[in-house]
Structures
1.
Amino acid sequence: MDGAFDQRDGFIWMNGALIPWTDARVHVLTHGLHYASSVFEGERAYAGAVFKLREHTERLIYSAKELGFEIPYAAGEIDAACIETLEANGLVDGYLRPVAWRGSEMMGVSAQNNRINLAIAAWEWPSYFDPEERLKGIRLDMADYRRPSPETAPCHAKAAGLYMICTLSKHAAESKGYADALMLDWRGRVAEATGANVFFVDNGVLHTPEPDCFLDGITRRTVMDLARARGLEIIERAIMPEEMENFSECFITGTAAEVTPVSEIGPYKFTPGDISINLLNDYLALVGGDTA
């Protein structure tokens, strides 16, 4: 499946039915476009099964409630629609994007009477980063934008508006030859990459920022379980950027990124080692992917 995303073949599930891909359209005055009243999920399917499907669905429903609206489908119906969409597009390995948003019935900040729409698309999407670069460790820039305080945004929702600064930061990083960017939070502490959580290794112990102003990722929690199964200690804590000088390994986690070692964050260097590679392979074995 190649080409612009609005001109592809296949089917998208939208508001209760599968429709041709190119027919899945919204009006230019839809509230979600103007006021970011939209939530979404990123999910991967391996060998025909969507990994942690119910957890993703429950987070989608939670995110919508955080933005003040209710998706008009139960979790079981959303799960079934995801599977139906995957199968309709003939995919066994792929990426799924459920998205819910306020429609165009009202235009303005206030939009209580707008229809709540739900769509699900699925397509082929291989490794988020170049496979060879991934094993060597990707390079991250330091982002200028910071994750906002929980008092200023619904930071635990996977909401479209929260990704504006992620796009800006990733574009800036890529323009300088980096693969991604690391974001600090409003206090100046290490937070996350633009679409993934981050882990560091110090003397065999994993250190990761406490997710108090960003998503506690589903992949993050999965990798923490895999680390515990290996007997690794995990410390969730506030991490200041200057501490990165003392860490030996670094990797990021996310549905798209899976587990990806990092070799550089700004001025700080890391060497992908046994812990990063073992957890990468443990994750790929768990989801049914090919090990590195």
2.
Amino acid sequence: MRDFEYEAPTTLANAIAVLAKNNGSARPLAGGTDLIDHVRCGRLEPDVVVDVKKIDELNVLELNDSGLRLGAATPCYRIYGCPEISQQYAALTDSCRIIGGIQIQSRASVGGNICNSGPAADSTPSVIVLGGICVIEGPGGRREVPAEEFCTGPGKNVLKPGELLVEIKFPARPANSGSHYRRFIPRNEMDIAVVGVGASVVLDDSKENIVSARVALGAVAPTPLYVPAVGDAIAGQPANEDTLRKAGAVAKELVTPITDMRGTAEYRVHLTGVLTERVLQAAISRARGEAICTKIGH
């Protein structure tokens, strides 16, 4: 591993100052579970690593009537360890439970997962479907970006030199809503999704019809992919098998996967349809207050 300087600021202002001073040659470290590996392999060559774990604003985890605030450095175990968050923002905790093992989850953060900007990231589809807003701060001040617009390419995002993802804000969940995230992996030893799907639905008061839905897909495009056409196709429709098949068919038409060691493009297209149906069904079941049966890690 190449040599680099290490900084551990305790305030947001100091962290931004260090990042800005180094003009793109500094990298924030939240959990470090991806960053350190990238540096070791030579994919990244930072001159300075800026540890942001000691900054209060990046460790916030606050749930109230207005919604959820999630600091960018908050570790995964704190998120799924909160019963209220697990109930209201279930897709998010589904994702946090499968990002590595418990040792990784004690360090890794949703903010770091998004900033790594991998197309197969497990948390990004969940953040998108739950309406997450990325709060960014830098030398030019604070700005907000919808989660579906944050990633711009494999390993690339909207952050400018000197900027830092501070937190992700989620709106309060509406009545009769449910969400779910699920992925398919080729085997337990390869912990990267062949396809991942996140979905959030809102049902009417009868809980028999879909008022609205948001679906996002992972590992089927250069970035995690928000597919509003799926929600448009099933809004106002009965929450039944025919509607879910329609959703799966629409999703299959929107993906542009590649063939790699984890699966062929054709296989990914097929999985997109299957998982979209299953994840929407699970989200509907949760909106109805029903338990779902899913194995963590799949």
3.
Amino acid sequence: MQNYGVFDIIGPRMVGPSSSHTAGAAKLGLMARKIAGEDVKKAKITLYGSFATTGPGHGTDKAVVAGILGLAQDDPRLRYSMLLAREADVDATVELSDEPVDHPNTARIELEGADGKKTLLIGQSVGGGNILVTNVNGLEMKFSGEYPTLIVRHTDVPGVINMVTLILAKEQINVAFMRVFRQGKRGGACMVIETDTPVGERVRQLIKDWCDPVTEVFSV
């Protein structure tokens, strides 16, 4: 017998009409903003599958832009996000693609900050307002954003995982879930570590300073 959560029955707190096409879309935009780590000046959003075909009628385009602006899924200003983007001098464009994808509610979000730094996120709205991030800056991964999440990009060499988890243990940060993804042996790799408490800037810097092959550390 299948188990159902409360959000499967009544849905999350949100500005409607759809938990998948609206609430999940806003979460994807907000996650992309968090990963970018700064105010966004330019956003290119590509919607696929049902996001592209029926999403505009549910405000999917507006929801993603709202998230990029830092608005939560239940913010009443969500429906005015395009106007708010113009007022904030954020150049936001939305494209609808008929390219086939693995999941019907898929968005590709490309952001550019004031200093020219670029961030790419590809993710899915998987129902009930929940999301799954599948790619960040060209590296495949999977995480939901339901827990504080630490992402460590590094070179695939022995000892890096041990060093990162040792630092977390010394800092009394408990690991809830952990996955490791790599592009190939001795190539680019990524640790996605979901924790019980947020990982602050000091700990992120410790990881970067002490783990030689680490190239990027950020948390959301």
4.
Amino acid sequence: MGLSRVRFDFSGAHVLVTGGTSGIGHAIARAFADAGARVIVTGRKLLPSEYDVDLSGLEYATLDVQDPAAIASVGATVGALDVLVNNAGANLPGGKSEYDPDVFAQSVNINLIGAYRMAHACHAALAASAFEGGASVLHVASMASYFGITMVPGYGAAKAGVVQMTKTLAAAWVKDGIRVNAVAPGLIRTRMTARIQDLPEYTRKDFERMPFARWGTPEEVAPAALFLASPAASYITGQTLPIDGGYSIA
């Protein structure tokens, strides 16, 4: 599934997608590029050729969202910017338990504090945007924002913080012509969820509850991101849109 029957026009727009080298971030980056935008993606590797995904047509910048100086550098050098997609994230960093306080703190740093630092670093560029409907920050939250996922307590706490941060920045930055929204994916087939995709004992109850009763794809998340950043959503800010196969309403 993709954008074959959905059309957005981001011709001339400048978009930055953190963690745009795989999964949901890559699908969002590719969708913006297909809609005519100039897209920069970030990843932790030194060169784009080190990735096993197609990054052709996308610009690349090395970034570790745990590094405040690197974030500030990207924000200072990105140039014109109309859309920031704060997608970079991880759970169980290093394969370690998030019940360890240091690992819990690391997960919060990656998934919440890094996203705030990135938004802060890009604020001036976004405020200078003349994009129709306003500039946008789009955060990637999670169903872990709303439900207790016992495997990843730090990730869940961080993603809950992302939802609240989305509301706060939306209220604070509207005066600067910046809208701030988020998407909250459910069970999506990505590298991050690979460890549980073949563990039906872990996901069985989720699928029994979920009306769609299947995994989603990154390509099913991307159109929502484009909508929220488009002029069609010019009166929407501070919202988090679940993309979860109906899990949150069943």
